[in-house]
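Continuing the series of single-chain predictions for the mutant panel. This is the parent chain; the variants come on the following pages.
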Amino acid sequence: MKKPILFILILTLMAFSGLVMAQDDTTDTTTSTDAGDSSSVSWYFVACETSAVVDLSGFMEAGYDIYVQIFREIGTANTALTPLTQVSVSGDYQVSPQINYTGGEILATGQFATAEIRIAREGSPETIAFSGTVNDTQDGCISPSYGSADTTTADGDSSVGLTAGELAQIYSPFGGIINSNIVSELPNESIVELGARASLNPFYGQQRSDTYGQIFAECDRYPGSEPGLLYDTDSLTIFWSWYASTPELVEDHLREARYQVWLNSENYPSQNIIDYAARSPIQQREDGNYWVFYTISLGDRWAPGEYSVGYRVEWANNISDGYEEFGPTTANNFLEGSCQFQVSGNPYGVDEPYQNPNYPLNLG
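Parent structure:
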């Protein structure tokens, strides 16, 4: 998996026009007068009790995204109900990110809220091509008009608007998807939920996965991909992947990619473990794309504790995956991911000496 598909724009947007109307369809367009290319956004905003529904549609040039933030009352000088949230779009788009209020904030019936909508450079929300606001009174909620979207807070926290029904399904290097039993058991939650949401239970995500031991190196970015409950008797495997629209484009990635992978533990310094990585053959998966999987076997007998894996990939020369470009002279000049996970003592009464963590690690 590369990222929640983020697209990066190279042109300068120079002009825009718009009209703001509370809870109405509102359209704004930015235009590049030198290139003849344009980006546009139409929105419909509804303030709910514990979240906001924002229908977004239009056309987005590569390198720019939509940013949304919700505030109490009228205007953007009041208390923020949500962080500034990046909504990843590209080309013609119709998306409805559901953005949950943070910190237990509740918007009572009759109270106003304001949504700020921006078009700005992907990863750089202060490089603004357009900014507008729209107001709404909390008088009930609606169902989103379109499908969900990849969302990331502007400070890097991911998946702000994903709900239990929108959790990522990640291909396993060994076939199928990871955590299929956990995904199927997640509750169907309404946009407005009375009482605590089951998916916000602090023990949620600690179920025993039917793919236990498989640790997706980007799990921090994709809700539903966490490795779940891991025991010290489990054989652990870190994995990540790359896909493209053709096998030849995957080959380009294999030739040009330069990976670093680190494993951190509570008591030992970070160690680069990329030399232990194995690579799968290129394979076509259920989505029609061509995939390659990277795996690092960590073995078993890891001492109970907190761990994290992180990776970074750069490219020696520019490549394409058939959808966008990556490399030193593109806006996607590197990608990073991470996954925090915990190992617990096994319930089987097995008591053997631990092999890891150590410095250096006992791998291979």
